[in-house]
Design goal:
This protein is an alpha/beta fold. The chain has ten helices and nine strands. Helix 4 packs parallel to helix 5.
Length: about 250
């Protein structure tokens, strides 16, 4: 069983945290300590400064590490900072990137269809999964995106266990929303989600370096679930999402 972190950040933060990770080597060392094999990684600059700069940086910093997989941060195209949706996705995939993130609140835009529909359609067409931090959106917007783009896998990262009633409702009413385990440390929560919705709706995530990797590893490793479900959550689900991207289109 391999652990593939779906929610990991690399690069110096504007307000550094104790033990923050600045270099790929530091991240790989941390992963080795926590027995995490692979990580899907976005760059701090992509959120805190410029997606264009951060995307270039994450390609550079992951290029020599086979177990670090780049995730690009995307924007609506209307201000001319990035190409229109289909062109942006084509450029991303041409660089070998198979996953995307958005930070609507940090970058001052909305997930509403009139603002970013072309980008969501482009991601949906080639099955690139879209990662959205819980604090960057709201339940209604995630639900709307999932319903309007049923072929798009939406991964909601950082969903707090205290809001499990909304998490459960979202999982019940959609078929294409998954959550990561970084903040979902509800007692028996992993077991219950597996029983009610299936292990395919959960991705192992740590939110490193904002949080330690160890607790997220232990939550999956010692959950009262089948070994098949455990392997799916630990890494197979994310691996399959990335492998399912239609890079030939």
């Amino acid at each position: 069983m391999k652990f593939f972190d779906a929610n990991c950040c690399l690069g110096k933060l504007s307000v550094p945290l104790p033990g923050h990770i600045d270099t790929p080597r530091e991240l790989c060392d941390l992963m080795e300590q926590a027995s995490v094999d692979d990580a899907l990684v976005y760059h701090a600059l992509s959120k805190e400064y410029s997606p264009v700069v951060g995307n270039g940086k994450i390609l550079e910093q992951t290029s020599e590490h086979d177990n670090l997989h780049p995730c690009w941060t995307l924007l609506p195209h209307h201000t001319g900072e990035v190409p229109p949706g289909a062109d942006a996705v084509k450029r991303m995939m041409g660089m070998g990137v198979r996953a995307a993130r958005v930070f609507p609140k940090a970058h001052n835009w909305t997930l509403s269809e009139w603002c970013v529909g072309d980008l969501l359609r482009a991601l949906e067409e080639v099955a690139v999964p879209l990662f959205i931090d819980f604090d960057q959106t709201d339940w209604n917007q995630v639900y709307s995106v999932a319903c309007e783009h049923p072929g798009l896998t939406v991964v909601l990262t950082g969903a707090p266990f205290r809001l499990s009633r909304q998490v459960y409702a979202l999982l019940a009413e959609t078929a294409n929303v998954c959550i990561d385990t970084s903040h979902f440390q509800l007692h028996g929560g992993i077991e219950d989600v597996c029983a009610q919705f299936g292990a395919h709706r959960l991705l192992f995530g740590t939110a490193a370096p904002h949080f330690s990797m160890g607790p997220s590893v232990m939550a999956v490793k010692y959950a009262g679930i089948s070994e098949e479900d455990r392997a799916m959550i630990a890494g197979s689900n994310l691996h399959n999402l990335l492998e399912s991207v239609r890079a030939d289109l």
